[in-house]
Specification:
heterodimer, A: alpha/beta, 9-stranded mixed beta sheet, 11 strands, 24% strand, B: 91 residues, Mth169, Chain: A, Phosphoribosylformylglycinamidine synthase subunit PurS (chain B), PurS-like_sf (chain B), ligase (chain B), purine biosynthesis (chain B)
Chain lengths: 234, 91
């Protein structure tokens, strides 16, 4: 599978090693970490932007990472339809880079939230969710201070009507309820996709739900989806 | 006119309708201090940029462009250039 799946690493990324581990040991995908100064993503099958605090979260989360050298080839990769997943800070970077709509605001509670959540996948299939059944509920952990998804009502309506709300926070039974929304996200949104469905941003951490030993392995379902997508495209 | 050094002050604020938990927390603090009349608080940021420009208008325009492209995120924030002042003339 070409050069496999690339995990971008920015100064301040801290989920890169976990993402690499989940990809290689979790679903057996060839993968490597790609430094933010690299400028060539040709040959990569998929790209993950991991969580962390790139550039110290200065100015706004993800605002500075957008200018890293690797972002130009990432844009081209996304435009070609290459699968891109932004996890947590990676989601914030994709929003700041306008590769995904909306923005992530400070949690309504003003607290850093670090716990397990349930998320329900309802949107149209994407490169990262093809292995999931419609309405499937996964148990994934969140770890963020700025995870409240925001977009204007027109954008939210458009995302909803076009099936681009990939996942929402829900209770364990799968009911999307205000009490299950940990951060004040608009419409309970935990993940969104771009128009083509190849770029997805998600606040919960699939790579941290990669082994029953650490509390759950539901996150592998997303990574497996990308692997299936890549194999199907070959 | 010779190029000079200018200070441009940009104020970035959360847009109306955008939740501002920081402002809410400050409001709670002010009320705890006894300011019962405080109705609302919005918290933004002030960014001062020192730059070389041909004049005040150029400096203002450059500051506004920087704010639009990076200092503010137009999805959630509004901005305005609050001040433009000469810092000194380059030798």
């Amino acid at each position: 599978m070409s050069n496999g799946i690339g995990v971008l690493s920015f100064p301040g990324s801290n989920g890169d090693t976990d993402a690499l581990h989940a990809l290689t040991d979790g679903v057996g995908a060839p993968a490597r970490v790609i430094d933010h100064r690299e400028t060539d993503l040709s040959g990569m099958a998929a790209v993950v932007l991991p969580g962390g605090f790139s550039y110290g979260d200065h100015l706004r989360c993800g605002a500075i990472a957008r200018f890293a050298p690797v972002m130009a080839p990432l844009r081209a990769f996304a435009a070609r339809g290459g699968p891109v997943l932004g996890i947590c800070n990676g989601f914030q970077i994709l929003a700041e880079a306008h590769l995904l709509p909306g923005a992530l605001l400070p949690n309504q509670t003003l607290r850093f939230h670090c716990f397990w959540t349930h998320v329900r996948f309802d949107g149209l299939p994407t490169a990262w969710t093809g292995a999931l059944a419609a309405g499937e509920v996964l148990r994934l952990p969140v770890a963020h201070g700025e995870g409240a998804y925001f977009a204007d009502d027109e954008t939210l309506d458009r995302l909803e009507s076009t099936g681009r709300i990939v996942a929402r926070y829900c209770d364990p039974s799968g009911a999307v309820a205000a009490a299950a929304n940990p951060n004040g996200s608009a419409r309970g949104i935990a993940a969104v996709a771009n128009e083509a469905g190849n770029v997805v941003g998600i606040m919960p951490h699939p790579e941290r739900a990669s082994d029953p030993l650490i509390g759950g392995a539901d996150g592998l379902r997303l990574l497996q989806s990308a692997l299936d997508f890549v194999h199907a495209a070959v | 006119m010779a190029e000079g050094r200018w200070m441009v002050e940009v104020i970035v604020m959360p847009k109306e309708g955008v939740n501002d938990p920081q402002g809410e927390a400050i409001r709670g603090g002010l009320r705890a201090l006894g300011y019962a009349g405080v109705r609302g608080v919005r918290a933004g940021k002030v960014i001062r940029v020192e730059l070389n420009a041909a004049g005040a208008d150029d400096a203002r325009a450059a500051g506004a462009e920087m704010a639009d492209r990076l200092l503010a995120n137009p999805v959630i924030e509004s901005f305005h250039v609050a001040a433009v002042a000469p810092v000194g003339v380059e030798a």
